[in-house]
Specification:
It contains eleven helices and 13 strands. The protein is of the alpha+beta class and 332 residues long. A hairpin with a 2-residue loop joins strand 9 and strand 10. It has two domains: 138 residues, Gcn5-related N-acetyltransferase (GNAT) (Aminopeptidase, 3-Layer(aba) Sandwich), CATH 3.40.630.30; 179 residues, Aminopeptidase (3-Layer(aba) Sandwich). Helices cover 35% and strands 26% of the residues.
C-alpha cells in the first residue's frame, strides 16, 4: 500500500533532505494533536503528508502544505485522490514548496485537474536571508540601520539565551497579539510544538532579556539546510534597547551553526517589490510594519507559486468558499 507509517515516512524523508519542515513527521504530529487527521503516502520517488479536518455533515477538507516531495508527481495523484475521497474531502488544497521565477516553477504543470486558489494558508511572499559566508559577511549584507540596532542591543546589555519556558513565551505572544491585532495559538499548541521539535534540536526558543526581565522571544524551526522563523513576540518594556534585532541575529547564528544555509523570515505583504519599497515607510497596517523590520536583514524577497485546489464536491466547495469568506476563516 502507498500509505506510510510514521517510521516509513521518516525513512522516506531521509531520501529528501531538502523537504520543507511542514512535511516533517513532527509537523504532522503537531497538527494531529489539534484536530487534524494525518495521512502519509509515497509512490515511487514522490510522497506527500496530507492533513484532513472535519467541516461538518460528514465532510472534510484536505491540505497538503509545502509538498509533494520528489519530482515525478504523476503516479502520486491517483493515490492522493483515493485517500481524499475515502475521507470525504470536499477539496484538496496544495501549496507546493516552489518559488515563482525559478526552475522549479514548471512543476506546477504536474497539477492536473487543479485550479489556482485565491486563498493561501501560508504567507505567499517572504524574505529569505542567505546564511552562507562568515558572520561578518552576513552582517555586511544587512541594512546599516539593522546592523546598528543589533550592536546597540548588545551594547545596552540585552542578553539572548535559550529557554524552555513556554509560559514566558506565551505571555509575550499574548501581548503582541493584543497590540498588533492578530490571533495567536493556544499555549498548549506552542508547548506541543516545542516538545516535538526541540529534542532533535530542530527547534529553538530564544529569549531576549534585560536584567531579569524578558523583553522578546522567538521560536525557530529547521529542516535540512533551511530554517524558518514562525513565531515571535515582544513586550512593551525597554523597546528602545532594540531586543528584537539582536534576537533575530542570534537565531540566524543558531541556524548557521546547525548547518542551515537559508533563514526564512516567513511572511510579508503580498505586494510587488516596487510597492513594498515605495510604501513600507508610510504604512503600518497588516504585515507592513513587519516588512519594515524584516527588510533590514538583507534577504531576498521571494514569492511562492501559491495554492491550488482540486475539487471533489463542487456544490459543497462553492458553499465552503462563501462561508470561509463570510467568517474570515481558513484552514490553518
Amino acid at each position: 500500500m502507498p500509505e506510510c507509517s510514521l517510521p516509513e515516512w521518516e525513512a522516506f524523508l531521509g531520501e529528501h533532505p531538502q523537504a520543507h519542515v511542514l512535511q516533517s513527521p513532527s509537523w504532522g504530529e503537531l497538527k494531529a494533536s489539534f484536530g487534524w487527521r494525518v495521512k502519509r503516502l509515497s509512490v515511487g520517488t514522490a510522497g506527500a503528508q496530507v492533513l484532513f479536518r472535519s467541516v461538518g455533515l460528514g465532510f472534510s477538507v484536505a491540505y497538503l502544505p509545502k509538498g509533494p516531495l520528489g519530482k515525478d508527481w504523476a503516479a502520486l495523484w491517483p493515490e492522493v485522490d483515493r485517500i481524499c475521497r475515502g475521507e470525504r474531502a470536499v477539496f484538496l488544497k496544495v501549496e507546493p514548496d516552489l518559488w515563482e521565477g525559478t526552475d522549479g516553477e514548471p512543476q506546477t504543470q504536474q497539477l492536473p485537474g487543479f485550479v489556482p486558489s485565491p486563498q493561501t494558508i501560508q504567507p505567499r511572499r517572504t524574505v529569505v536571508v542567505c546564511l552562507e559566508g562568515e558572520e561578518n559577511e552576513i552582517l555586511a549584507r544587512m541594512k546599516q540601520k539593522t546592523r546598528y540596532n543589533i550592536h546597540l542591543a548588545a551594547k545596552k546589555d540585552v542578553r539572548i539565551r535559550q529557554s524552555q519556558d513556554i509560559g514566558v513565551f506565551y505571555r509575550l505572544m499574548e501581548m503582541t497579539g493584543q497590540r498588533d491585532g492578530f490571533a495567536v495559538h493556544s499555549r498548549e499548541y506552542y508547548q506541543r510544538a516545542y516538545e516535538l521539535f526541540a529534542p532533535g534540536e530542530s527547534c529553538v526558543l530564544l529569549l531576549a532579556e534585560y536584567g531579569q526581565e524578558p523583553l522578546a522571544a522567538l521560536m525557530v524551526f529547521r529542516q535540512g539546510r533551511r530554517a524558518w522563523y514562525f513565531y515571535g513576540a515582544s513586550g512593551e518594556a525597554e523597546r528602545s534597547r532594540m531586543p528584537a534585532y539582536l534576537l533575530q541575529w542570534e537565531a540566524m547564528r543558531w541556524a548557521k551553526q546547525h548547518g542551515c544555509r537559508e533563514y526564512d523570515l516567513w511572511g510579508i505583504p503580498d505586494a510587488s517589490l516596487e510597492d513594498l519599497e515605495d510604501q513600507f515607510s508610510a504604512r503600518s497596517d497588516g504585515l507592513w510594519g513587519v516588512y519594515r523590520f524584516k527588510r533590514g536583514f538583507g534577504g531576498e524577497v521571494r514569492r511562492s507559486v501559491g495554492a491550488w485546489d482540486r475539487v471533489y464536491t463542487p456544490a459543497v466547495y462553492a458553499f465552503y468558499r462563501w462561508w470561509s469568506r463570510r467568517r474570515g476563516t481558513n484552514l490553518a
